[in-house]
Structures are given as structure tokens and as C-alpha cells.
Amino acid sequence: MPKLRFAAPRERRAALITGGARGLGRACALRLAEEGRDIAIADVLVERGQETVKEIEALGQQALFAETDVTDEAAVQRAVARTVEAFGRLDILVCCAGILGWEKPFFEQPVAQFDKVMRINVYGVFLAHQAAVPHMLARGWGRCATITSGARFGSPNQVPYSVSKGAVYSLVQSLGNAWPRQGVLVNGVEPGRALTDMVVPRFTAEHLANPGTPIGRYSDPEEVAEVVEFLCSERNTYTTGSVWSVKGASG
From the candidates 161, 169, 218, 238, which is the catalytic residue? Predict the structure, then answer.
């Protein structure tokens, strides 16, 4: 640990990760486990979630899987309660649950599709923070990180997704200013495109080999997880209400 005046003592903390069964969520779960965190995976993907739990346990950490629809307030509350019951605490929240939705022009996007994307991508983050943060405030320390997207600037064929990520950006900034004096810091991470199940099937192998980004490639999920781990660590003593770019480019 660097000599940071305001860093909390390093402890065996507990983290809840929504969407932690695969992709960025899984990478974040494993990276946090490597740092000695116990991990609760909240996801609808039961088999994948249980596989991730086994990987975490192989790293010597406690882990559990809670089947959770993040749009269901009661289910989110249950996942938090299970985490606290199993580990005796909840210090870290990472919100990775999300969907892309339809990639279609605006007039081909039904209200039901807009509602579905907003409920998972926005309500899920809202509900997770409402359920988890009180436990952090009670202990006087907490870290939250949520995955957002550059689509928040607008994408005509992804309007529901774009709007949802713009809302998440605003939510992160609002909550980031809510509790820093009580020791709870809230941030976001904007990963550009990472090589996950959400991204890889949408593109040809030729495009993935040379996507035209300044750095010349898309990221591995583990590269994004490095930034999430820092934001959720004792080493983060002064960053709150920020959205960190991990895009292989400026901006």
C-alpha cells in the first residue's frame, strides 16, 4: 500500500457484483478476489455464475451466487442480505449487469424495448446502490463502480442503450457527491469496446483484428477490471463522481 494519508487499513472486504457471471463482471470479480475480497455474484445466468464462484474459490476467497434479476427490487435486496449474512459485511459494489438491446433505427424501437433496456441498465444500478450503500455508510467506508459507455453521447441505432448510459453517467455523478465525507465513493468506468459476449458476435474477425481505434485493438475485460479494482480499493482516496475512460484513446 502506498503511503496515502487518508487510505483505510487494508482488510478482507466483501464485494457484490451484478452481472458478475461473465464478461466484464466476471473479470472484475476475479480481479477483486485476487486482491483478497470475498465476492457475491448477482446474475440471472445460473450456470455461468456458479462457474465464476468456483474460479473465485480457487483463488482462496469465499464466494456465493445469488440468482438476481436486477430490475426486481426485492431480489436485489435479497442478494445484498445474503452477502451480508455470508460475509458479515458489504464494502464494495460493482454494477456490470446490462444489455445492449436492439440495434435498430429510432422508429423501429418499440416502447417495450426502451423500457426493458432502461429497467436493466438504469433501474438495476439505482436499486443496487439503494440496497448496498447503507451497509457501507454504517461501516464508514465503501466503494462503488458502475460500467457506463461512450454511447451516452448518442447513437442513432442504439437510442434506448444510449439514453440508459447517459442516465447512468448522471447517476454516478450525483451519488459520487452524496457520501464522500462518510467514506463512500461512487464512480463509473467507460470501457469503449471490450472483447466480451456483448461485443465479439457483432463484428467480423477482420474488424476485431483492426477496429480502427488509436491503440489498434479492443480491450480485454481484464484491462477494464484493473481500473475497477483501483476505484474500489483502499488506494482510491480522492476519486468520486468520476467516469474513467478505458477506451484506448483520449476522451
Answer: 161
For residue 196, give the nearest of 167, 153, 225 by alpha carbon: 225
Is residue 238 annotated as part of the catalytic site, yes or no? no
Kindly list the domain boundaries of the chain, sorted by start residue.
Answer: 14-245
> Rounded to two decimals, what is the model's pTM?
0.93
CATH architecture of 14-245: 3-Layer(aba) Sandwich (3.40)
What is the pLDDT tens value at each position of the chain, 251 positions in all? Answer: 568 999 999 999 999 999 999 999 999 999 999 999 999 999 999 999 999 999 999 999 999 999 999 999 999 999 999 999 999 999 999 999 999 889 899 999 999 999 999 999 999 999 999 999 999 999 999 999 999 988 788 888 889 999 999 999 999 999 999 999 999 999 999 987 776 777 667 777 777 777 778 888 877 889 999 999 999 999 999 999 999 988 887 66
Give which of 13, 24, 21, 1 is closest to 195, Cα–Cα: 24
